[in-house]
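Class, discuss our next protein.
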Amino acid sequence: MRILGLDYGEKRIGVAICDELGITAQGLTTLFRKNRRQDMEQIGRFVDTYGVDRIVVGYPLRLDGTVGIQCEKVDRFVRQLESAFALPVIKWDESMTSKEAEEMLSQAKVRPEKKRQLIDRLAASLILQSYLDSLDPAKKSH
Protein backbone atom coordinates (compact mmCIF):
# COMPACT_ATOMS: atom_id res chain seq x y z
CA MET A 1 0.00 0.00 0.00
CA ARG A 2 1.51 3.29 -1.09
CA ILE A 3 -0.24 6.52 -0.20
CA LEU A 4 0.73 9.94 -1.51
CA GLY A 5 0.20 12.88 0.84
CA LEU A 6 -0.32 16.39 -0.51
CA ASP A 7 -0.39 19.78 1.20
CA TYR A 8 -2.18 21.95 -1.36
CA GLY A 9 -1.45 25.66 -1.53
CA GLU A 10 -1.96 28.56 -3.91
CA LYS A 11 1.72 28.64 -4.95
CA ARG A 12 3.16 25.33 -3.75
CA ILE A 13 2.16 21.71 -3.12
CA GLY A 14 4.00 19.75 -0.47
CA VAL A 15 4.46 16.07 -1.34
CA ALA A 16 5.00 13.07 0.96
CA ILE A 17 4.84 9.29 0.52
CA CYS A 18 4.43 6.42 2.97
CA ASP A 19 6.51 3.27 3.15
CA GLU A 20 5.14 0.04 1.63
CA LEU A 21 3.66 -1.04 4.97
CA GLY A 22 1.76 2.21 5.45
CA ILE A 23 3.47 2.95 8.76
CA THR A 24 5.61 6.04 8.23
CA ALA A 25 5.35 9.13 6.07
CA GLN A 26 8.34 10.78 4.47
CA GLY A 27 8.41 14.20 2.85
CA LEU A 28 9.54 14.07 -0.79
CA THR A 29 9.55 17.56 -2.23
CA THR A 30 7.70 20.81 -2.75
CA LEU A 31 6.17 21.41 -6.17
CA PHE A 32 5.94 24.97 -7.39
CA ARG A 33 2.57 25.34 -9.07
CA LYS A 34 2.43 26.42 -12.69
CA ASN A 35 -0.95 25.46 -14.15
CA ARG A 36 -3.44 22.62 -13.72
CA ARG A 37 -1.97 20.45 -16.50
CA GLN A 38 1.62 20.77 -15.29
CA ASP A 39 0.59 20.30 -11.64
CA MET A 40 -1.15 17.02 -12.56
CA GLU A 41 1.84 15.90 -14.64
CA GLN A 42 4.21 16.50 -11.74
CA ILE A 43 1.93 14.63 -9.31
CA GLY A 44 1.47 11.88 -11.91
CA ARG A 45 5.20 11.18 -11.85
CA PHE A 46 4.95 10.34 -8.14
CA VAL A 47 1.82 8.25 -8.68
CA ASP A 48 3.64 6.21 -11.35
CA THR A 49 7.04 6.00 -9.65
CA TYR A 50 5.65 4.80 -6.32
CA GLY A 51 2.64 2.83 -7.56
CA VAL A 52 0.29 4.95 -5.46
CA ASP A 53 -2.99 3.32 -4.31
CA ARG A 54 -4.62 6.46 -2.95
CA ILE A 55 -3.96 10.11 -2.27
CA VAL A 56 -4.49 12.02 0.97
CA VAL A 57 -4.93 15.78 0.66
CA GLY A 58 -4.82 18.17 3.59
CA TYR A 59 -8.25 19.70 4.15
CA PRO A 60 -8.08 23.15 5.79
CA LEU A 61 -11.05 23.10 8.14
CA ARG A 62 -11.44 26.10 10.40
CA LEU A 63 -10.54 25.67 14.05
CA ASP A 64 -14.24 25.24 14.87
CA GLY A 65 -14.43 22.40 12.32
CA THR A 66 -16.42 24.29 9.70
CA VAL A 67 -15.65 24.53 5.98
CA GLY A 68 -14.26 27.80 4.62
CA ILE A 69 -13.20 29.29 1.29
CA GLN A 70 -9.90 27.36 1.30
CA CYS A 71 -11.85 24.09 1.50
CA GLU A 72 -13.67 25.00 -1.73
CA LYS A 73 -10.29 25.38 -3.47
CA VAL A 74 -9.14 22.02 -2.12
CA ASP A 75 -12.44 20.44 -3.23
CA ARG A 76 -11.73 21.60 -6.81
CA PHE A 77 -8.17 20.23 -6.57
CA VAL A 78 -9.49 16.89 -5.26
CA ARG A 79 -11.89 16.62 -8.22
CA GLN A 80 -8.96 17.26 -10.58
CA LEU A 81 -6.91 14.53 -8.88
CA GLU A 82 -9.79 12.04 -9.05
CA SER A 83 -10.30 12.79 -12.73
CA ALA A 84 -6.60 12.65 -13.61
CA PHE A 85 -5.67 9.46 -11.73
CA ALA A 86 -8.85 7.45 -11.08
CA LEU A 87 -7.65 6.81 -7.51
CA PRO A 88 -9.41 7.33 -4.20
CA VAL A 89 -8.62 10.79 -2.83
CA ILE A 90 -9.13 11.31 0.90
CA LYS A 91 -9.56 14.79 2.37
CA TRP A 92 -7.82 14.84 5.76
CA ASP A 93 -8.07 17.57 8.39
CA GLU A 94 -4.81 19.48 8.24
CA SER A 95 -5.53 21.78 11.17
CA MET A 96 -2.34 23.28 12.47
CA THR A 97 0.04 21.15 10.38
CA SER A 98 1.71 24.16 8.72
CA LYS A 99 2.08 25.84 12.10
CA GLU A 100 3.45 22.61 13.60
CA ALA A 101 5.87 22.27 10.68
CA GLU A 102 7.05 25.87 11.17
CA GLU A 103 7.65 25.27 14.87
CA MET A 104 9.58 22.06 14.17
CA LEU A 105 11.82 23.85 11.67
CA SER A 106 12.37 26.77 14.07
CA GLN A 107 13.36 24.38 16.86
CA ALA A 108 15.77 22.71 14.45
CA LYS A 109 17.22 26.19 13.81
CA VAL A 110 16.61 25.98 10.07
CA ARG A 111 17.47 29.27 8.32
CA PRO A 112 14.40 31.27 7.18
CA GLU A 113 15.28 31.04 3.47
CA LYS A 114 15.61 27.23 3.74
CA LYS A 115 12.43 27.02 5.87
CA ARG A 116 10.19 28.11 2.97
CA GLN A 117 11.47 25.20 0.87
CA LEU A 118 10.84 22.64 3.60
CA ILE A 119 7.61 23.72 5.27
CA ASP A 120 5.16 22.40 2.64
CA ARG A 121 6.94 19.05 2.35
CA LEU A 122 6.98 18.68 6.14
CA ALA A 123 3.29 19.68 6.37
CA ALA A 124 2.44 17.02 3.74
CA SER A 125 4.35 14.47 5.80
CA LEU A 126 2.48 15.46 8.99
CA ILE A 127 -0.90 15.23 7.20
CA LEU A 128 -0.06 11.80 5.80
CA GLN A 129 1.32 10.54 9.11
CA SER A 130 -1.85 11.65 10.90
CA TYR A 131 -3.91 9.72 8.36
CA LEU A 132 -1.70 6.62 8.66
CA ASP A 133 -1.92 6.73 12.47
CA SER A 134 -5.71 6.71 12.23
CA LEU A 135 -5.87 3.51 10.16
CA ASP A 136 -6.82 0.21 11.71
CA PRO A 137 -3.65 -1.97 11.64
CA ALA A 138 -5.64 -4.75 9.96
CA LYS A 139 -6.53 -2.41 7.07
CA LYS A 140 -2.92 -1.34 6.48
CA SER A 141 -1.98 -4.62 4.90
CA HIS A 142 -4.69 -4.32 2.21
